[in-house]
Amino acid sequence: MARRTLLSGLSAFAATALTGCVGGSPEKRHIRIATGSPTAVYYAVGTALAGIIEQELPGVEATTMVTAASAENVELISNDQAEIGFTQADILVTGTTPDPRIAALARVYDDLLHLVVRDDSPIKSLDHLRGRRVSVGASGSGTGVTVGRLLTVAGMGQPGVVTQEKLNLDDSLRALSTGGIDAFFFSGGLPVTGIKQLSGNTRTRIVDLAKWVSAMRKEYSDVYVVRDVPASTYQLPPVSTLAVPNFLVVPRSMADDLAFDLARMLLERRDVLAVAHPAAERLDIRSAVATLPVPLHPGAADYFKSVKP
Known about the structure:
Elements: H1 6-12, E1 21-22, E2 25-26, E3 29-34, H2 41-56, E4 60-65, H3 70-78, E5 84-88, E6 102-118, E7 133-135, H4 142-153, E8 163-165, H5 169-178, E9 183-188, H6 193-201, E10 204-206, H7 213-219, E11 225-229, H8 231-234, E12 239-251, H9 256-268, H10 270-276, H11 285-288, H12 298-306
Parallel strand pairs: 3-4, 3-5, 7-8, 7-9
Antiparallel strand pairs: 1-2, 5-12, 6-9, 6-10, 6-12, 11-12
Helix pairs in contact: 1-9, 2-10, 9-12
Protein name: TAXI family TRAP transporter solute-binding subunit
């Protein structure tokens, strides 16, 4: 398949372009990448992707946006306030039909739900969170949505059963280390840098959540699966937990040529993304196309067809 040109793709992609000129030269075109916490995976991979875009697409300025993560990112994409966003798949399947304004660029890796406690904590299972102060993820995060569903299937979603604090990852790390909370949840690809740093400074544990996956699949979606957190990840005892696929999404209105180039960069420059964070090592063409129920953007689909093994 002939290589699409950047110029034709970006000319149709009005949301990323500034139309003015300075001194007779066109201003740079902009691509905004909605990520998450600065100490989590989305931001690390998104920052690396921004660098690749600027290297590969002359005249384009790519910037990362610090956000609450998945739910906020989807809203930003839907409202044309970002051009690329990271999101958990479960954020996109809250209804029977995916939002027609959103298309997937690729499936990147799986997010694993971490329930982190201090090593001397009496909390050994999800049930032990009753009466405890727990960070359930920031408002607008994928963590918050997943945890809300998990507590509901466990019969713990009613007000007062768990004292819920809506903290982002950085605030959760600080609060657990100082005793401000008893536990926190965070959903991210392995390893989550902030959790790894915490485990090096404060004796912690990760609570096994595997027993709740079947209930989550039955009640909400079969996007939920069981994944292992090996001992080597955080130098902690291994556990199994709830996991959900992670997608890069874009506006459905994005020009096919640009979506083609972005998908190409993900696969061709995977080594650079993996240096930024090991989770990107899991990106390959077979898993990248598995984005149902969210359709691939036609431009991305064209790229994957062109390199199909």
